[in-house]
Amino acid sequence: MKYYCIGIKGSGMSTLAQMLKDLGHDVSGYDEEKEVKFTQKGLEERKIPIYYDHSFPLEEDVIVTASKAFLETHPEMIRVRKSKATFKAYHTIVGEITKQFTTYAVCGTHGKTTTTSLLKHLLKKKGCNYFIGDGQGKIEKNNSLLVLEADEFNRHFLAYSPEVSIVTCIELEHTEIYSDLEDMIATFSTFLNQNTKRKVIAFGDDENIRKIAFQKPVIFYGENQDNTYQVKEIVLNETGSTFSLYQQENCLGTFHIPLYGKHMVMNATAAILACFEEGLTPLEIQQMLPSFQNAKRRFQETIIKGHIILDDYAHHPTEIKVTLEAIRQKYPKKRLVVVFRPNTYSRTKAFYKEFQAALNVADKAFVTPILCDREDVKDYPNVTSALILNGLKNGEEITEESIDKLKNETDSVVAFMGCATVSHLIDAYKKLL
Predict the structure, then answer these.
(1) CATH architecture assigned to 300-432
(2) Positive or negative torsion for Cα 191, 313, 227, 259
(3) 307-337: per-residue pLDDT in tens?
(4) The pTM of the whole model exceeds 0.90
């Protein structure tokens, strides 16, 4: 079949395009951004053509899918509507793929990408297909397993059919989609109870997860005693994180991960328990975990002339807070500077006080103007990054043009955060150095 992916350089769409190609389909794509993005590597390896104009032939045998960033008024979307091509939603196509394999779906407000990446790493020898939100996707038809990052945005995951689901946490997010926290909990409940076929692995210390009346067998993990598996003896230091995993009084093993922060310990625990389902032993997992390399734009470090630059996808207040605390774990003697790019007006409006508290973990916080491609600024009067800046103890606005504000950060870790692209900011800082 022929697929045409509009917004193909987006992380999710790039991943889907790669997997469709691996399944033997003819895949092409369209994007407005001509500059090279990190999501292009897999596309280029598979020789998937990218169109930057409106010349791709939208014939009757073509299935078109599109990123939500492309509104109905976009010229390419108008062209699709006028053509004989068939339009199919992104999440519908992903859902069809999940039915072809024994799928492990990782859902939750935070931690999806890292947990899915850990599963991909640990199940490598067993043979594992994967769909990860950082632009990584691969399918080998003889592999029966698929690990999938199941995103709650636009309730996409309700189209998926996993055998086993992992839920890392539930917190209010995507306030342009969900009316409130109870709406989110109800949607996760539907996914975990109705879409999941066999079993759920859940972070039992999360009070919102505990509100769900599970109808499928559930394995709880966490530090609390009422969990099926308890995480104990956590040690967080400059080399990473170490912890022991218990089932009642039985210690199953001590594990080390080259990751930072207690939240990463919990992500690793979820992945370990999923691997137990597939027959891996604690010893096999112990041997494989230290070589894990996290996904793109997750605690990604670059050092230039002794200057430590960190790029991270964190864009929700909770993610920012725990990532800044993790940087403190690795670099306890360094000054911590954060450069944050807010990416939606709705999230900024809903969480500006929480953003203030999270960014105040740093010694200095810079905030850029909001960069949003799926909301209209006219719908959010008076919502700017100033809402966040006004409550910072040591905050300042920054742009690519004013990046020289960082020139004196000679003994600092400078962390760039946001799900909207921060690559321009990082490139400008590297040029400054």
Answers:
(1) Alpha-Beta Complex (3.90)
(2) positive
(3) 899 998 888 898 999 899 999 999 999 999 9
(4) no
